[in-house]
Amino acid sequence: MSIAFSYPSAIIKNRVTLWPRRKVVAQHLFTSGEFAHICGIRKDTLLYYDSIGLLPPELVAPNGYRYYSTKQFYTYHIISTLKEAGASLEEICNYLRNQTTQDFLRILEQKQQELSAEQQHLQRMQKLLANTIHTTRQALQAPVGQVHLAHFPEEYLLATPAPPPSATAQEKQYMLALQSHIDYCRTHMHSVEFPIGEIVLQEDLQRGIFTESYYCSHIDRPLHDPRLLIKPTGLYAVLYHQGAYSTLPDAYRALSDYILHHHYHIAGNAYEMDMLNFLSVDNRDSYLLRIAIQISS
């Protein structure tokens, strides 16, 4: 129940409010429990808002009881509205200290920009999840160990150079290059699936060298990006290989032998794609990779 107190005039004159289309009336005061119930929040929330100076009670009685006014009902709704719009409690507190229409617009426009960025992020994540689910389901039905020919359309990749193979190359160098690629894709919000691929260059394939020269990720359209690499449309010899990464040379040799024995020629790069890897299986021997080498007759 709301109650009215008789307090000195210095207090009374601070407890008036203008109701819409109504005359000025003395404000009722509500206990913290009543006020929390009216606002639909927990009493603990009021205590926290008081502790940070966001919504202190209108009055603290000598017995320690806290009382809130009808005016503070509207203050609370400023807080809840801006909080729902994405403003931090610190931002709201600053706004309440200097409440102007320009500041109100500034906060809303800033939150609108942040929401737009979040929408873009969510849309990208939807693509990432959908494409990764599709790739993983494909992996479960892949013809492992069988070479076949397939015609691929043009595809778009973001590519990051891998460290050149050498006797002194350290695992740390490969990890740093891979992380650089992941960070770049995340920062620019380009990639459309989680698995990361590798590219082995044509000249290396022809010399029997099967070490990747690039790490790559698929994107859904060509971009003006210095890391853009286009996988050309054409005929490819394809092999789904199951095993740890250390067994990849065996897969490449099998593909090369197939191309040679069926009177084809290596006409482009090899594109590796992780179908199942550390993200989805816990045993390296269960990794599944698709290797596609562009060929010509």
Structural commentary:
- The chain has about 300 residues and is an alpha+beta fold.
- The chain folds into two domains: about 90 residues, Multidrug-efflux Transporter Regulator, Chain: A, Domain 2 (Orthogonal Bundle), CATH 1.10.1660; about 170 residues, Alpha-Beta Barrel (Multidrug-efflux Transporter 1 Regulator Bmrr, Chain A), CATH 3.20.80.10.
- About 40% of the residues lie in helices and about 25% in strands.
- It contains nine helices and 13 strands.
The gist of it:
The protein is α+β, with helices and mostly antiparallel strands. It has helices spanning 9-12, 32-39, 43-51, 70-84, 89-97, 101-140, 171-188, 202-206, 248-261, and strands at residues 16-18, 24-26, 29-31, 59-60, 66-69, 147-152, 155-161, 197-200, 214-219, 228-231, 234-242, 265-276, 288-296. It has two domains: 9-99, Multidrug-efflux Transporter Regulator, Chain: A, Domain 2, CATH 1.10.1660; 124-296, Multidrug-efflux Transporter 1 Regulator Bmrr, Chain A, CATH 3.20.80.
Number of helices: 9
Sheet with the most strands, sense and barrel status: 8 strands, antiparallel
Mean pLDDT: 87
Q: What is the CATH C level class of the largest domain, in words?
A: Alpha Beta
> Could you say what the CATH architecture of the largest domain is?
Alpha-Beta Barrel
- Which spans have pLDDT < 50 for at least 5 consecutive residues? 1-26
Share of residues in helices: 40-55%
CATH topology of the largest domain: Multidrug-efflux Transporter 1 Regulator Bmrr, Chain A
| Largest sheet, spatial ordering of strands | 6-11-13-12-8-9-7-10
Count of separate structural domains = 2
Count the E strands: 13
- Beta-strand percentage range: 15-25%
Instruction: Give the topology string: H per helix, E per strand.
Output: HEEEHHEEHHHEEHEHEEEHEE
